[in-house]
Amino acid sequence: MQTYLKISELNDFIFCPRSIYMHNLYESFEKEVYQEKRQIRGTIVHENIENKKYSSEKRYVQAMEVYSERYNLVGKIDIFDINSGTLIERKYQIKQIFDGYWLQLYAQKMALEEMGYSVKKLKLYSLINNKAYYLKEEEEIRNKFLSVVMDLENFTVEDLSVQQNITKCLNCIYKELCRGDV
Length: 182
Fold this sequence. Notes:
Blueprint lengths: L4 E2 L1 H8 L1 H10 L4 H4 L2 H14 L9 E3 L2 E4 L4 E4 L2 E3 L4 E6 L7 H16 L6 E6 L4 E4 L3 H17 L11 H5 L4 H4 L4
Parallel strand pairs: 1-4, 6-7
Antiparallel strand pairs: 2-5, 3-4, 5-6, 7-8
């Protein structure tokens, strides 16, 4: 049986590979045990999409599972506007745009295109302030995407011992379990 990589793990992987390990460790726990407020808010934001209540217009594909055989990836999109060809990822609040956001959207784009859809624009949407951000440097994200997918495919448990960025560690929900010096 083929094992696919999760599109959501692209962002986690570039943040810290240990977070993927910790996330998988906690997957069977109730989310309230380990999630912080910002994560709970994000879950609530996605409920309308998960329940396909964003819009009743047929032009919007909501919460569709996607896969890419070429890149060995599976995931789920938030919203795809068929008419404009815009793939949309909604966030409760975007204070800073991280490459991982674009990598996930780009991976979703590749999967959608492999499935026969025509994706023309990638859009991040911040709900709290009603701001939209569009990807401008697609070639740069494409190169990062290819590199991260290859790194993730070749990653081994031994690689978890690599020292991580202390700033990232301070913002990690797993910091208390992962390292004693943070």
